[in-house]
């Protein structure tokens, strides 16, 4: 079962990178948040690093930051 967990974590990291390559929406921030909640180990650390990039990218849009903050996502 170790492989399944590893695959899930790799998929989560790949999806997080895809999210960052798109124009951010509240829905994508929710999805990113769910990825970080379910990650573990090294992938969780890598997602945390990507979360910082997500925050910086989101900060371009004050309305998006306000909505995400209200939901406890940022």
Notes on the structure:
This protein is mostly helical and 74 residues long. The chain has one domain. 80% of the residues lie in helices and 0% in strands. The chain is built from four helices and no strands. The chain has helices at 2-20, 26-38, 41-58, 62-70. The chain is elongated.
Task: Give a brief description.
With 74 residues, the protein is an all-alpha fold.
Structural class category: mainly alpha
Helix fraction bin? over 70%
Kindly give the count of domains. 1
Helix count equals 4
Mean pLDDT: 90
How many β-strands, per DSSP?
0
H and E order:
HHHH
**Overall geometric form:** elongated
Strand content: under 5%
Radius of gyration: 13 Å
Query: What is the assembly state of the chains in this entry?
Result: single chain
Largest sheet, strands/sense/barrel: none
